[in-house]
Amino acid sequence: MLPDLSFEKKLWDRGYSLIIGVDEVGRGSLAGPVVAGACALRIENHESRIMDRDFDNKNEKDNNIHDSCFMIPDSILKLGINDSKKLSKKRREEIDPEIKKYFYWAVGEADVGVINRFGIKPATEKAMRQAIIKLLYQVLDTEDKITSKTALSRTAIENMRPFLLLDAFQVKYIPIIGLACQQAIVKGDEKSITIAAASVVAKVYRDNLMRNLSVENPDYGWAKNKGYGTKDHILAIRKHTAMCWPRPNSGRT
Asked: Where is the signal peptide (predicted)?
């Protein structure tokens, strides 16, 4: 069964407009950065409509303003967006540009230095925070034609009415959004389209990055193993790295 928009629709009906799915890739690898993807369905691709009903007064109408239905283009559902781990390399690369047509998207990364200094969890949070903030700037620029980073004010963020859906994770210190507007979903990339889309964007980005790093550091076979702990990769780390750190600094500095 493919991920769907069940979580997103519930949040839209609660009044949230910008539902941001977030996922990471590379957290369990032995080399290279941890990369986070963030995706949110573009405003023009879903349309809220107040259900037909009679209102006795303005207050009743205001109270029901978010009792809405959303029209999602069939073309989005037909993409077959899924957890990146369940898609072949070819399929991920096919749907990655299609996802970017329908979704706001951004990536963030934490390099090897950050991982080795602070640990993988804080590094993952840093990558996710970066991706989320970059996406918020993108939405603001697209909607209001504002490019100045000083424009990302409390009012600007609140007007987006954002909510985060994350794959079994929560991220501290997101400006204005905080922890209150986050939901950690176990196996979220198998349940939510926006989280699954984020997983694909992050995976394609990181795989390309590791292929490029492999050209600079051919001894580790990163083009093939993407930094994960295959037998050949572990042997290469032991052979070519003076100290067998969790992640060789040659991976990304």
From this structure: none
